[in-house]
Structure formats: C-alpha cells, structure tokens
Amino acid sequence: MDARLNLFDSPVAAKLLKHVIAAGKAVSESTLPVATQDLVKIRASQINGCGFCTDMHTKDAAHAGETSVRLNLVAAWREAMVFTDAERAALELAEQGTRIADAAGGVSDEAWLNAAKYYDEEELAALVATIALINAFNRMNVMVRQPAGGYRAGQFG
User: What Gene3D superfamilies does its record include (predicted)?
Assistant: First the structure.
C-alpha cells in the first residue's frame, strides 16, 4: 500500500513538517515526562485511527523502555491499573482535546483542573502542545493514508 501523497517528497509538506517538528522540540525539551508525552501521542493516534503514528510512537516508547503491558493497555487506560494518576489525567485531557468536535464544550473544566493538580503551567503548556501537534500529524497521515508497520524505532532521530 502506498500513500496517496508522499509527504517527504513534497516541498510544501516538507517545509510544513520542518516547522511542526521544530515545535515538537520545544515539548521534548520541557519537563513534561517523556513517558507521558508518549502515552498521549499513542492515545490520540489511536482515537484518530492513525496507524502510522500509532506504530511510530509505540515502537519509540518501547525502545525508550516503556513496558508492553502499559503500551497494550493505553486504549483501555480507564480500566488499567498500570498508569499513575498524573498519566490518567493527561490521557483524559488528550482524549477530550482530540475529540473537541464530539463535545459541545470542548475540554471540560474537570479534566483541566485534574491535569492541573499534577502538572505545573509549563508542563500543561507542553501537554497542550503535544496534543495539538500529534493531532496535526495524525490528520496529515490519515488524509494521505500513510501506511503503517514499517517504522523502525528512532527512524526520524
């Protein structure tokens, strides 16, 4: 299966991706725990049906030491006992931030206040940025039908 459009060969897409990736570096350099960043990226990618991003972020997380139990339970995080309260708050924020169109009020005050119990303002900013960026990547990859399964951990540095 080939993608509808090669995002890596398109000058416009390459230019855009350069900026989106640069924005992501600000998050990766933040104090938001890397494991939380990974979990949020995986969950949003699952919700959006982005096989490419789900493949990439689960492999990168596993390479960074994340356990298979936690990776396998991200989609069922509410019932899983393997996530911290802080991670659960981040996952809830990620779900609501990803499903904005499904809820009339967007992200609830309850979800925001719960996340704010565990993350300071800079970490909340990084969390919001992570959710926004992964949703942008998901949407691009889903639209072009970027194939999944061939990613190698660390492939994009």
Answer: AhpD-like
Residue position matching structure tokens 């960026």: 133
**Max CA separation in the chain (angstroms):** 45
Burial 50-86 (b: 16+ CB within 10 A, else e): bbbbbbbbbbbbeeeebeeebbebbeebeeeeebeeb
User: What HEC string does 64-83 produce?
Assistant: CCCCHHHHHHHHHCCCCCCC
Torsion angle (degrees, nearest 10) of CA 81, 38, 10, 3: -30
- Which tens digits make up the pLDDT trace of 26-49? 999 999 999 999 999 999 999 999
Confidence of residue 1 (pLDDT cuts 50, 70, 90): confident
In a domain, 93, yes or no: yes
Contacts of 63 (CB under 8 A, 6+ apart): 153, 154
pTM of the entire predicted model:
0.94
* pLDDT tens for each residue of 104-145: 678 999 999 999 999 999 999 999 999 999 999 999 999 999
Q: Look up residue 133 and give its two tokens.
A: 């960026």
Assigned domain for 5 exists: no
CATH number of the domain enclosing 129: 1.20.1290.10
